[in-house]
């Protein structure tokens, strides 16, 4: 268990083995239902990348998952488990939506954008900083409080939309639609490469998600604050002796984590639906957990993990269409398996690999 | 406000408290042994599905109940293997269990019944509903009080009696038996238990299996007693309310029952509170819905007493070499 192994085993081979296990088990589930797993993979790949509109949807989901994946990852670096991405993204969507509702008669989208980013990030940050504060000052575990905050956010948003944002006389529970000038532009410049992408909800938020990745990389690995976060994450006691304030690290890290989750709200609110509506995050906050675990909390790998899940979410729709006996919920199964094998059982193969190495060393000697 | 104390509302409270209480006690066994369990929700859901699916195909309530319990125990064992044997992160494993259950119930349900994730209506012989009306029906002739007593206490499903009997039983097991003492010890100081020559792994596995059985009963309550059949995501956050109740009860069985009754009372009263005014304020229904979660946050923040989790909770045990 504690044997030293080369870096490429711990950071390359083992995660890969875990991931493969997850997908093999998923394949077995498909097989048990009586369908061909390889054929299913084909449908998913075609649905995700086969045509422009599909690529657009894949990128749209990917955008959500990059934001929520980064959110979980940032908190992980301070050894905090932020399960509240869902609620933070919901509140973030509210912030973005309020900025749009307030300014769409005055400013075009690029004028609103800074306000939307600020509001979305702020609302998400507050919703995460409270659990952070309660942990740092009161010892209340972030895991439990963020779960509770998710549920509180559902009720809160339900109340706000029903009582304040709903258009009177309209039955649907949503705010008014923003003026068209406030809509985030679609990725039309990509339509040469992927004809039809402009008909999908993919929008400029995707680029912002990539910018957020660079921001997180610099923050965590290139700043003094990021160094303190990693020290705290590796050993809170040592960090305290080194004069690093628990409150400052935890509250700030959670706030940044929540801000990233909050920015996810921009993608559906300003980029797709152009209104505030019920259930803005649509599970993306939870997918972020799988993405962060799979991406080992590194922005670069998070992009790939998010793309994989984006592909699964979009391709899953195609799969359900082509193979009616498999529903889109298969993606949720895969998500669960990835979290199980890449997260909870990450050490499963380690003793065997370590044994293998010991054997090789012995035969060398 | 008095209508909240009507027999029908109290009756709903008892029935809604049952799945909560069973799940809450499940969490109690697991967490007292040092294994955090945020996968209660998933186990309830998969048990509800298994109970309904087997009930529909076999048409026998007891086989269906057995299937619900076995499925839930199987999921509990996945949690056990991940957290106890492979020393994985208990929170991550719990999250995985929840997704796995949600996804599998929908995928398998659709493959079996092609009803968009629902199961067909359970036949009557596959349900475990009310008590034996014939035996106690004489009480109904005793006027309104007799009728109320009859409806509240003698006309419930078997799960209600099981759940409330499980409270003193759990108290007795945890505080008056050798197994219970060891179970609590392993949640506080596993190294001491290990030194005494008792297997930490074995104890924790047994605790996790207890949790599986109780979650199985909780899920079966949902699909076989409160409803007749499986509906997509029918646990609807009950696993988390149970978790909230567990923390609220500070990991003690009798208090857990009180907390579950309180939260169930809130749930039962929701529709009756709609549009009602208290001291000139209209209570938003959403506030009532969020109240259990808000209460737990306030409690955890230490504003009403201090909730102290089992000391070794969440930490995988590594034997010294």
UniProtKB/TrEMBL annotation, chain A:
**GO function term, MF aspect, one:** transmembrane transporter activity
According to the record, the signal peptide region is none
Under the cellular component aspect of Gene Ontology, which terms does the record hold? plasma membrane
Keyword Cell membrane included in the entry's annotation: yes
Q: Name one Pfam family in it.
A: BPD_transp_2
Q: Where do transmembrane segments lie in this chain?
A: 12-34, 54-77, 89-107, 113-135, 142-161, 202-220, 241-264, 330-353
Localization recorded for this chain is: Cell membrane
The protein's name in its UniProt record: Ribose import permease protein RbsC
Q: Which organism is it from?
A: Pontivivens insulae
TrEMBL record, chain B:
Q: Which keywords fit this entry according to its UniProt record? A: Cell membrane, Membrane, Transmembrane, Transmembrane helix
Q: Which Pfam families match?
A: BPD_transp_2
Q: Where in the cell is it found?
A: Cell membrane
- Origin superkingdom: Bacteria
Record field: transmembrane: 62-84, 91-113, 158-175, 207-228, 287-307
Asked if the Swiss-Prot or TrEMBL record annotates the protein with the keyword Thylakoid, the reply is: no
The protein's topology relative to the membrane is: Multi-pass membrane protein
What would be an example GO MF term here? transmembrane transporter activity
Q: Name one GO cellular component term.
A: plasma membrane
Q: Does the keyword Nucleotide-binding apply?
A: no
Official protein name in the record: Ribose import permease protein RbsC
